[in-house]
Sequence to fold (411 residues):
Amino acid sequence: MQLIKALKDQFDLPVKFWIVALIAFINSISFTMIIPILYPYAKQFHFTDFQASLLITSYAISQFLATPVLGRFSDFLGRKPLLIISLLGTVVASLIASFSPFAWLLFASRILDGLTGGNMSIATAVIADTTTPAERPKAFGLFDAAFRMGFVTGPAISFFALKLPRFPGVTSLGMSFFIAAIISIVAVLLTWFMLPETLSEREELRLSWQMFRFGKIFQAARSPKLGRAFVLTFLSGFTFTIFTFAFQPFFLNVLHQDAERLTIMFILIGVIGVVTQLFAVGPLTKRFNLADILAVAIAGRAAVFLLIPTFPVLPIFVALACILGITNSFTTPLINAILSTNSTNREQGEVQGINASYLSISNALGPACAGLLVSISYSTPFWVTGILTLLTAGFALSLKSIVNCSSRGNT
Fold:
């Protein structure tokens, strides 16, 4: 009975939250379907390795520039219309990529997807609209778990998409983009018909160049209340994307494994992460300070990075990957919770948009730095990101005063 009561408490959230979590899950499937085939698809257009990497960078930079603007417009026009526009952008971009006869169109599709890729920040604003400050750590943990479930199922669906009969004008690899477009259409329909507007008080729309000043993103880092949370998002994302790039060549070339086992490793880390977010994030945030949990989780991630090149054998690597699945489950939902509890209802869209931009720019810079480090040796990225991640864990403790202030404000 106690277990049933604990589970009921863990999943006791408004219906609107579960609708947006379902939308996030479907959207993440369409996004993660593209990840395994983007590089080989670029090779079909005779891209060099560097040009192929620019597909990732162009998406991340476009998202960095556009997400705060979309988030701010959602504070004016409402969450629902901007979420639909963002999802429709993914539909159009995926269709362009699937039917693309020219290399430049593939770049155009990634840029368009990035420019309209603010749906996750808008979705987090929906959660902030529909939950109490006390519920938000649990809500963001479950939301992130729903998103991560897409990272488990997306690549598997992409694999089966390659086996489907080809639609006229679409290559076998392009079928993953085509199916991703169909899945995104489902997310659009769910948003349109099932998600009510959650923004109760809208600001009056006043267009000005101030909305498009991207210097505001960097100025946000100096905010006495939220600046350190934005910087932590960047540092956490930057150090982790160095690992994600270095992970694959190390697994394939140092541990002498194949691509099939690499896929299994991704699925294993994803499943453990989802389970952790479902059953651990909520209970732990009720007992401990959010900044303390963040610091411990990031320090655990650093330990994994440093131990991987120290013990380059498969059984230890698998064990460390399982630990990584646990430690990596806390950062994003807890930072989102800290930001939301320190923002007014009218600021949620803009704040989450700025935070998403910091994550986007870290996703653009991290892989490029990792590529340079891999050229030295397969182990070098792990040593560098391990040390940087330890420093990031120390920085996470500086958020303790913000968390304490918000806690006193909510009591």
User: Anything to note?
Assistant: The radius of gyration is 21 Å. Confidence is low (pLDDT under 50) at residues 1-8, 407-411. Residues 49-77 form the longest helix (29 residues).
